[in-house]
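User: Can you write out an input/output pair for a complex, sequences first and structure second?

Assistant: Here is one pair. Inputs:
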Amino acid sequence: MDAIAVYDDGDDPELIDVPRPTPASGEVLVRVSRVGIDGTDHEVIAGEHGVSPDDDDYLVLGHEAVGVIEDANGTAFTEGEVVVPMVRRPPGTENEYFQRDEPDMAPAGQYHERGIVGAHGYLCEYFTSQPEYLVSVPESVAQYGFLIEPVSIAEKALEHAIASRAAFEWTPESALVLGNGSLGLLTLAMLDRRGFDRTYCLGRRDRPDPTIDIIESLGATYVDSRDTPLSRVSAAYEPMDLVFEATGHAPHAFETVEALAPNGVGALVGVPGSHQFEIDGGTLHEELVLHNKALVGTVNSGRPHFERAVETLDSLPEWLLDDLVTDVVGVDTFERAFSDDDHTIKTAVEF
Ligand code: NDP
Ligand code: ZN
C-alpha cells in the first residue's frame, strides 16, 4: 500500500510501498480518509524533531488523521464507523500514564507518538490500532475530521490554563493568540465561541493575507508583531487575561508575562529549538509574583480533549473550515500538501 515517509538520511517526504498491516487480536484495521499536515511534520522532515521506529530507517509521517473502520475484528466498533486516532502509544509495555488514561502527561521516554516519535504514523492507506486509542466521530465532522487532533491540543492547553485560575473568581474578557498558523487560527475561533469579549491575534504578515482575513472575519483584531512587539501589546491595546502562544518563537514565552493583565495566564504550546537571548529575569519574576500571573506549558492531548474537540469542530462555522483548509491533495500530488508558502494555511492528503 501507499505510505508517505521520511528516511533518516532523507530531506523530503517520499511515497513508498509498504505491506498492508493485518490487525492483531483485539486490534482494528482503519482505512485512512484524510491526514492533516502541520508545523510538527515540517519539523520532523527537517530532522529537528522525531525518531523512526527502532527496526526501520524511515518514519511514516502523519498524526492528524480521520478514517473509517475497515475491519472491526470482533471489537465494539462497526465497519464503516468514522474514527479519529489519538497520537500517543505505550513504548512497549503500558505504564501508569496509559493505565490512568493520561498518556498526554507521560514524560519523554514513556510514550511513542505515531508519526512523530518511535512509531509509524497515519499517512498511509491503512493502519491498525488498539480500540482504546480511537475516538468515534459523527459523519457531520468526517470531512474535516483531521482537524480534531489539532483542536484537541488547544482544548487541553485551554483546560490547563483555565484550571490554573480555578482557585479564585476569574472572569476573563480579553485574549491574545500568538501565531496565525493553523493552530493559532483554530484556537482564535474557539476563544471567540467561549465568551471572550475581545480577541486578538499576533502575526508578522502584510495585508492582503488569507490569515488576516480569517482573523478579522472572526471579529478579532490583527496585531502585527513588526509594528507592535508582544512586549508593547499591553500598552498599545490592553493587558490580556489570556495569552495563547502558538508561534514557537522563544522570546514570546517571556514577553507573554508582560502582555498579561494581573491574575492572567499564558498557555504555551509552541515548540522552539535552542534560542539564546537576553531577558530581564528579575522583572519577569516580579511580574509573575506580584500580579498573580501564571505560565502553563502543555503538550499533546488525551481522550477527553479529543471528545471535546469533536463537539468544538462541529460548532465551528463552515466558512472558517473552508478558508482554513487551503488544499486537500491526492497521493499522486502529495508534495503540494507540504508546501509552506503564505497562501497555505492548512493542508491534508486524501487517500
Ligand atoms: P505554524 O508554523 O503553521 O504557525 C506558526 C505561526 O507563527 C506562523 O503563522 C508564523 O508566521 C507565526 N510566527 C512565528 N514567529 C512569529 C513572530 N515573531 N511574530 C509573529 N508571528 C510569528 O505552526 P502551527 O500553527 O502548526 O503550530 C504552532 C506551534 O505549536 C508550533 O511551534 C508547533 O510546533 C507547536 N505545536 C505544539 C503542540 C503541542 O502539543 N504543544 C502540538 C502542535 C503544534 P509566518 O507564517 O508569517 O512565518
Ligand atoms: Zn499536529
